[in-house]
Amino acid sequence: MSEIMFEPCQIGALEIKNRFVRSATWDATADESGAVTDTSVAFYKKLGEGGIGIVVSGHAFVSSLGQATPRQYGVHNDDMIPGLRRLAQAVHEGGGKIALQIAHAGINSGHLMSRGITLPAVSSIPEMKRLHQEMTDEEIEGIIDNFAAAAVRGREAGFDAIQLHGAHGYLMSQVISPLYNHRTDRWGGSVENRRRFLLEIVRRVRQAIGPDFPFFIKYGVMDDQKGGLTLDDGIETARQMVAAGIDAIEVSGGVGQGVYRTGENEPIRTPFRERAAAVKRAVDVPVILVAGIRNLETAQDIVTSGDADMVSMCRPFIREPHLIARWQRGETDPAACITCNKCMAIVQRVEPLECGEDHRLREEAITG
Ligand SMILES: Cc1cc2nc3c(=O)[nH]c(=O)nc-3n(C[C@H](O)[C@H](O)[C@H](O)COP(=O)(O)O)c2cc1C
């Protein structure tokens, strides 16, 4: 049994019973308006009972123009609060903690694009084959305020923490990336200007939720595309975000590598481990590593080596919401998830999230 993984740890003032995080997962169970449904609540109830230290919700859009996907949770107005409160309660009843992930997709919304909506872009990109328009200074300021208001709603709905979605090529990734940001005003050009948007969001959210409310970020510390955000610039930004009030950093990919994929016969890897270790050396808040973690030994090795303080998983919990409780009982077989990514195909069809491999096996049994 891995003692260290089941020791309590902290994100800011929040005590967490172990070092396992459920990484944010869009589950396509919200209704058309972005409100939580009974299906969503049932889903989180299982996660709450599963022994996970802290569950991060699926990305919730902070304004209508920031919605990335259909059936995504919204936190863009006060009508969303009662539903979100049910989600938080479902996890609390099982003894878990829950953070609300707040997000803006920027130009990266296939959903709004398919409805012919003009997307807010940090810069106009002529080769981009979707309707978009460069944001004015006022619009950028408005989005920063949207993040702050969304965070306050999350706190009101009873969440234990707020997580910013600053990864995977969504708006925060777009603004800091030289690949998307070609502006010449105070939001673009030098890295100091490109990081201003992230730092302003951190400052204004922190101001809005108060000095002690736990607040962290899922952060694409570098881009995986030529000409993108470099690791050095990403790390310096991490340092400045901590100085501005961030309590922990979940290290993921930026532009070019969102949900990490494996080829069919490719062994599972943890692609962000080295960059998480580099972030950890640079900051004095907990660092969380996500992607590719499938067994307890690897999790323990990541933490005991000092590369990260906590580990985060997404797809393993789709197949086994009770994975951590199983490991804690001493049944330490690796996660049953085979990283086939069929779960993603299911939500992309706008069906409620489930394990695609379980789905396939069930269909096979029915058809004999
Ligand atoms: C179906 C699905 C939905 C996801 N939704 C989100 C999301 O809402 N926010 C986010 O930051 N990452 C999201 N991700 C990415 C995961 O949180 C995670 O970073 C990625 O899957 C790698 O971790 P894993 O190898 O443990 O699955 C999603 C991934 C999948 C497969």
**Judging by the overall fold, what is the CATH architecture?**
Alpha-Beta Barrel
Characterize the overall form: globular
> Can you list the ligands bound to this structure?
flavin mononucleotide
Assign the CATH topology: TIM Barrel
The average pLDDT is: 95
Distance separating the two termini: 40 Å
**What gyration radius follows from the Cα positions, in whole Å?**
19 Å
CATH classification, class level: Alpha Beta
Order of strands side by side in the largest beta sheet? Answer: 3-4-7-10-11-12-13-14
Q: Count of DSSP E strands?
A: 14
Strand content: 5-15%
- How many structural domains are formed by the residues? 1
Condensed summary:
With 368 residues, the chain is of the alpha/beta class. The protein contains 14 helices and 14 strands.
